[in-house]
Write a structure and sequence with these properties.
Helices cover 69% and strands 5% of the residues. It is mostly helical. The longest helix is centred in the C-terminal third of the chain and has 30 residues. The protein starts with a helix and ends in an 8-residue tail after the last helix.
């Protein structure tokens, strides 16, 4: 029987093409930190076993073989990001088994996918629908505060002022961060499939709502209602505050007593 360490080495070597492609992508994105964090978190138990002089646990051959077959197919017929995703999932799956054993929580695979350089893809597909949703919710919040604001496409109409919801205001980054948080909590708390999917849905709703709250706050500045001088960093500070509230609301919801296993 081959040792778990040898299987991990062979597993890593089998995806050498994906690692080259991933390294090229990571050079021009901000995903390095998130991917490194996920790999370290999953690899830590295996590293601790080796440091204590213990043997690694068995790495199952069947799922590793299936993922490798899917990877070969993806290399032939799918975009490069699919091959990179399968490579990262396969490696993390093997590391988890080697360090902890048992079936990994589904959130591990969510973390693996979100840690990849997927933000450009998310922005391409989701920026416009998220801008529409955020514009509608922002208009509702402002109307509730007594402002006669309406929606025109992905812009807000206030009198003769038309304030655009441009791509950075779509909330894609906040959505990614919320889904990453949901996956991290799901991994640490070992959510089952149903609970993890529910957590992702809650994160999605809260991220859109949080972005609308951020946009409504910035509306007062962009429209000129608030004329006090604000430093350029205030925009980022408002965004961070909105995400902090979103994150706290998410943790409060998913960690309520009824959600927790008996």
């Amino acid at each position: 029987m081959t040792s778990p360490l040898l299987r991990l080495a062979v597993l890593a070597a089998a995806y050498w093409g994906a690692w080259i492609e991933l390294a090229e992508r990571l050079r021009s994105t901000e995903a390095v930190a998130s991917l490194a964090l996920v790999v370290l978190a999953v690899a830590a138990p295996a590293a601790l076993r080796l440091a204590r002089g213990e043997r690694l646990l068995a790495v199952p051959l069947a799922p590793a073989s299936l993922l490798l077959v899917l990877y070969v197919g993806a290399c032939a017929a799918a975009p490069p990001i699919a091959g990179m995703a399968l490579a990262v999932v396969a490696l993390l799956h093997g590391l988890y088994h080697a360090g902890q054993g048992g079936r990994p929580p589904p959130a591990l695979f969510g973390l693996a996918l979100l840690a990849l350089p997927v933000l450009p893809t998310l922005e391409f597909y989701l920026a416009f629908p998220l801008r529409l949703a955020s514009a509608g919710l922002t208009a509702g919040l402002l109307q509730a505060n007594g402002l006669a604001v309406s929606v025109e496409g992905v812009a807000l109409r206030w009198g003769d002022r038309l304030i655009q919801f441009d791509a950075p205001c779509s909330g894609v980054h906040m959505l990614w961060a919320a889904l990453f948080l949901a996956s991290a909590v799901g991994f640490l708390d070992r959510f089952g499939p149903e609970r993890y999917l529910a957590a992702l849905a809650i994160a999605l709703v809260l991220a859109v709502a949080g972005n609308a709250l951020r946009a409504a706050s910035l509306f007062y500045v962009e429209s000129g209602i608030v004329t006090t001088g604000m430093p350029a960093a205030a925009h980022d500070a408002i965004g961070l505050a909105a995400f902090a509230m979103t994150a706290m609301a998410f943790v409060a919801i998913v960690r309520r007593r009824p959600w927790r296993p008996a």
